[in-house]
Amino acid sequence: MDIAVIVRQIKLDLAMAKPHDLHFFEWNNVVQSFHGETDRGAAVIAAGFVDNYLGLYLRSLAVDSKVAEELFQSMGPLSSFSQRITLARAFGFISKQDYEDLTLIRKIRNHFAHHPLDTTFGIQEVSKLSIKLSDFKTAEEAAAGDITKQYRYAYLLSCGRCCAAMYMRLEKQVMEESKTK
Fold it and tell me: Are 85 and 103 in contact (CB under 8 A)?
C-alpha cells in the first residue's frame, strides 16, 4: 500500500473520531455504495457508517453535550469503534447480540483496513467471522449458491440491523420523553 494512501487514511481516521451528524435513512446511500465497491471498500464503508452511528447514538444519551463532545475528540476515550462498542454494552445501551455483531463487524473491518494485499469476504479469516454474524442465515437464503456473497450480505445486513436497533431505541426514547412533557 502506498504511503500517501496510509497517511490519508490516518487523517480520515482522526477526523472521523468525532461522529458526523448522519441520519439513519442515509443508510440507503451506504447500501448503494456497498454494492458498487470491492470487498475491502464495502467493508470499510459499511463499518464506517455503523461506527459513526454508534457515536451519534451514544452522544444522544449524554446529559451534558459539551462534556460528551470531549469524549469523542480524536484522542478522547470514545474515539475508537472498539471503545464505543465496549461502553455501549457495559452500560446496557445495546443488546448482547448487537455487542457481539458490532465486535465481529469491527474485526472484519480491521482485517480489510490492515491487510495491504487483496483480501475478500471469501478468505478463511473473514469468512470465519462472517459466519458468526447473527444475520448469516438470512444472507444464506438471499445469496443461495454464492458463499462469498453470503458472507458479504451477512456483513451488510448485520451493519444495517445494528443501526436500525439503535435508531429504534432512540425513537422509543423520544416518544417516552414526549409523554412526560
Answer: yes
Among 151, 155, 156, residue whose Cα is nearest residue 122: 151
pLDDT digits (tens, 9 = 90+) for 26-69: 667 767 777 788 999 999 989 998 998 999 899 989 999 889 88
Task: Tell which residue, 72, 107, 91, has the closest CA to residue 169.
Answer: 91
User: Can you read off the three cell numbers belonging to residue 169?
Assistant: 431505541
Domain assignments of the chain as residue spans, ordered by start? 3-180
CA pair distance 24, 134, nearest whole angstrom: 20
Give the CB-side neighbour count of residue 89, counting CA atoms within 13 A. Answer: 15
Name the pTM for this structure: 0.81
Question: Average pLDDT, whole number, for the chain?
Answer: 84
Give residue for cell 457481539: 100
Which CATH code fits 3-180? 1.20.120.330
C-alpha cell of residue 22: 448522519
